[in-house]
Amino acid sequence: MIKITPTALKELTGFLTEKKATPSVRVILPPASCGGLGQLSLTVDAPGETDFSTKEGGLTLVINKGLLEKTGGVTIDFQNNGFDSGFVVESEKLLPPATPDCSGCDGCFN
Question: Which domain holds residue 65?
Fold first, then answer.
């Protein structure tokens, strides 16, 4: 299941309209560096055969079914604290580290 807050829906719809992009947004898990936790992100992409998709306010929200099993429910929000603003994509389940072994460096925990 993918949920989107009203604020995120408004911001995302406005962004896609401004960019003249397709109103189909995919939740992804891009590769992370070192042993950091994987962080969900968004990209513009149409649904495929191996995806779960849902429509919300004129947008199609998409996630790969395998990723959805790992994340559980996903919530897309938009936050603006005056200094920083952007989309926040959170998963119901804690995601494992992208790289389980940090033997290549020691910079993360110093």
Answer: 2-91
